[in-house]
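Worked Example 4.2. Consider the chain below.
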Amino acid sequence: MDKNRDRIRQGWQEWLASNNRGWRLIVGFVCVICLALFLHFREVRVEVLELNTSASRYIVAQIDFEFPDYETTLILKQQAMQDVGKIFQIDDRQIREARYALEDDLIHNKDWRIAAPLSTFEEMYKAADELETLLLEARFTDARTLQKIRDLNLPDSSYFEFIPESESLIKLPQGFWERTTQQIAQSDAFHNEAIDYVVGAFKAHTWNLSEDMALEHSLRAQVSRNIPEKFTKVQAGTRIIDQGEIVTSRHLTMLQAMKQEISESRKLWDPLTIIASLVLSLIFVSISALYFRISQPTFIRSLQQISLFVCIVLLTLLFAKLTEYALLKNASNVMEAVRYPIVAPFATILICILLSPRTALFAATFLSIILSVSLAVDHSRFLILNLVTSIVVIISSQGLRRRKEVFTVCMKSWLSALPVIYAFTLSEGHLASYSLLTDAGAAFAFLIATAILVVGLLPALEMIFGVLTDMTLMEYMDPSSELLRRFAMEVPGTYQHSLVLGNLAETCAQSIGANGLFCRAATLYHDIGKMNNPQFYTENQQGPVNIHQLLTPLESAQVIISHVTDGEAIARKYHLPQSFIDIIRQHHGTTLVYYFYRKQLELKGGKAEEVDEKQFRYPGPKPRSKESVIIMICDTVEAASRSLEEISEKALNELVDRLVMEKAEDGQFDDCQLTFEELGRVKRTLVKTLLLSHHVRVKYPKKEKNCGL
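Applying the procedure from the previous section yields the following structure tokens:
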């Protein structure tokens, strides 16, 4: 499992170190697509108002739009419902009583047989049933209500236009009975004489009409639902709300409708709009690439650094979009409290720590502009606040050695935000206001969240992209770690040599602007391979016997050389960073183990052709960075300086010049980027540091007893 993980990790690191132009173009393409999506699907910003509060400023329509005018719609519905008048029905108890009276008449009075000679009792009975049903269903109302019923396409056969003049018993109009007669006759089940007799029996009665409240309510509800929603047009430039005016639901509806209209007018799925977003994104990315190519050519050629930069930028865009979504979907008072979200410092501090302050400054400017024009915020104030806080972050982030210092950086950034926020308050005409406190609190919350996210993401980004920050280097320098404890206990001489070498390499690296802390940390591990055979190295030999006297020169050379491969194996076992492994492999380059090579030549009688020089050379590769060259030079000079009988500036200069020249003639500096000027500064710093470390101390006289004091 560990082998597979190491293999994957090594393959990933090799891919990042490949610096293939094609892969860099692919990373750039991904950046273009993601940035285009961010620019394309941006939210529309409108003023946030809270219901029943006083508007702080006037708002003008940005575009022609229509909004659902609920107040007008409500008025129209109320007017329409007023068109529905009273609806009356016949008292069902009276209808049943009239029915019973008719049945009694049919049983005891034989006159109906004369009036309807062709009808049977059963027919008369059924005709009475039909009439009773029609009377129970009958409703009486005015002409306006009847027209409303017809407008709604409701059945109106049971309605009759009639309004009683009083609440006492009344006779129903003749027209009603004529229509009822026609309705019964439509079935062709009854003789006309039977219908006339039955209707006449009911017609003779007087009736009490009562108001049908339930039907009136139901009809009014249907009329209300049938009224279409009223939309009111608002032209661009029309003032929606005045300063100091109380915010109503109508104002909020207008603002929401305007926002929706602006969104729809952008035509997000139109091909031309999509192409426009891609073109803008391509312009931004191309300008950025051109800037880095001119000002930071090493950055633009590094797949590792480009990938890390793009990853941080995309994470920042995602963070900004999620923040915007949370604010817009939340309550309006939250959006009002968080008027200026601080997002850009998130990317700035990550890039400053993982890449360089110069790159971070460009990222701060780039992201502040992109975010200010894309997010639903006050563009100018958002830009100023994010740019100021990002610059303070860059100034404060240099030289961070501990992760908790990230919180200190964010607090300094927050302190720089306070005068900016106060300036915004003054520009609004207030010496102090509630919004000043909310803005300061929101800025504090955003920067604390930024610190938490940065501390959480740093280890992941370092591991994925193989970057070592000063904070991680400090952690690797902890002497209480398992590997360093073993190193100090098992090979104390080599460990002390590594400590001295670390100080030398750090000082020399700082003299040319290289990473001194990395040199110091890497040198602690550069000789860990000696733990496998500590007794073969002079600094760990304590007895008078030199074990190499028992070995041939070739065997001794192979043991000495093996500390490089052994060190690499131990480093991978303890999951040390790849850059540390590179130092272990490169700190001797492909140099010759000259002492044992010379002894082998002596054994062969000085015949060089009988000695395979490759067997006496380290496997390499040659140093490929300034730091690895510095460690190689310091390692060689520090060991050789111990053999000097007299430590003086002249002797050290001669020693350093000779050893550096030998390395250069051997081609050990061919693959690195160290210039002659930098090499000269490294040599001068090395001599100066060695002189200080070997300074002469005052000899203290021996303390004698009874000296008379």
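The longest helix spans residues 434-465. The beta strands are 59-60, 65-68, 88-90, 139-141, 159-161, 209-211, 231-234, 239-241. Compare this with Example 4.1 before moving on.
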